[in-house]
Amino acid sequence: PLIPSLLPTRYASNIESQMVQTDRRALRFPVPGLVVVPGEDGITKRSAGIRFARRVAASQGRQSFRIASFDGVRAHDLLRSSARNRVRSLVADWLDERSAAAAKSRNKPAA
Questions:
Q1: Residues 6+ apart with CB under 8 A from 74
Q2: pTM strictly above 0.90
């Protein structure tokens, strides 16, 4: 629904180029992250998002990057889906954990 049935070649080539660059950047993703994916997405490939998130997680360590899957939910925008309250709660909890970890590391005495 967001992409017309006929795409100009230049536009399609640019999209593909951006996808390749984004995938390469997974190994250099500089910040902690949370990727939230639905059980099924009718617009984008769920598997591509999970693959990207796993590459980032593998390069950073599992503590700094998390993947959360909402199996059984069919949606592209989880914040506008029937699971929105669970998603918001998950995001809020993740932010609280990151904030607590950052505060703890700031309050450690210097060695």
A1: 38, 39, 40, 41, 42
A2: no
